[in-house]
Amino acid sequence: MFEKVLIANRGEIALRVQRACNEMGIRTVAVHSTADEDAMHVRLADETVCIGPPPAKDSYLNVSAILTAATITNADAIHPGYGFLSENADFAAMVEEHGFTFIGPEPDHIRMMGNKISAKKAVFEVGIPVVPGSDGPVSGDEEALDVAEDIGFPVLIKAAAGGGGKGMIRAGNSQELPDALKMAKGEALAAFGDDEVYIEKFLHGPRHIEVQVLADSFGNVVHLGERDCSLQRRHQKILEEAPSPALNDDQRQRIGRVVVDAIRELGYRSVGTFEFLYQDGEFYFIEMNTRLQVEHPVTEMICGLDLVREMVRIAAGTPLGYGQEDIHLSGHAIECRINAENPETFLPSPGRISDYHSPGGLGVRVDSALYSGYLVPNHYDSLIAKLIVHGANRNECLMRLRRALGEYVIGGLETSIPFHLRLMADPDFVNGDYDIHWLERFMGEA
Ligand code: MV4
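That is the input. Now the predicted structure with MV4 docked in place:
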């Protein structure tokens, strides 16, 4: 096992990784920008290294500074958290080339899944159902028209280098197609420096359901059920839950088995998430995430595993030591993402925390790096806390979540807590009756 792990991240996820390392007897190295000198992840680390000025590109994305920090502290391994360098295949390769272990998948798998065309091709070949569309990149108008007429309008043109909704254009008919293709390529080039695009059939009101997997280096693979992440606004998730209110246990086990077989065949290692659109009882793969995700705690709460601990063990070459028959999903969990932002306009609201009281009690978990007196910097993501609640069933979970949101005090800045409280009172949400477009309608009416 590793003696020392460098955590190449900040905020709640840096703390989350630190906690897992602490429990495993592993020493931690925090890296930080000058804006994060007083951050909780720095205060709680065994060693700290300042890696640059506030802008992420000069600090948390500064590969040479991070590798230097790992060298001077004599770290064994690097955990990337989520965001920043977590899905950068070149970074993962450089970490290994410098003699450290990258706590995550192999660089080749990160690269394969980073390009959405190669990801779709790879998973299709191992039996995963994908959204109907082009087999590969589409460049010319005629080629695009052939594909679109074959699958039927409306279609969606997506950037191969994209993901998360950037560079996505819809074409309702053949007249709209050439302009949509041109726009999608232009956006893709501007956003990713790569104008490669592909075409998919546009699905009208799906849910966003993602399946969590865990795989070691010896072909042992388990799935940990799914998360429903349909509640999002402008491609930012707001709340996630596990299990999905839309699936029954039979559907869960069926998609789980398909995903486990695929992962084993791909030779993938570490945590991973298959993202599906789910409509009319069918799953359609869209993307795979090769990192620990923000919403991983809802899965942990229903399966009882520490996903970060499992990631670290896998990276150290330890076999899983359990199989699918040992995984038991129990109860229901919901995560509310709490952002430093105005609950009406969603504009960022950085500032100093004046009062802080986090909720507690049975089934309540708070993943946050906040403390009273902490100054939330304006240079990074506005996610400041995750409130995760577990209950024996969805109803108990909702009652507990209302109670916990009501207890939560974060003074000194605006947060999305009032928004979550309003959401908890909506009959559609309470019934689990929502799709990927529901939240934006809810906000329009609010
Ligand atoms: C789609 C789709 C409908 N049909 N693909 C948006 C983010 C990116 N990861 C994929 N996205 C979508 N792809 C087809 N063929 C609708 C979306 C989409 C969406 C997906 C998941 C969660 C929220 C979303 C919000 C708007 C659009």
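Residues 131, 156, 163-165, 200-203, 208, 232, 235, 277, 286-287, 436 surround MV4 (CB under 6 Å).
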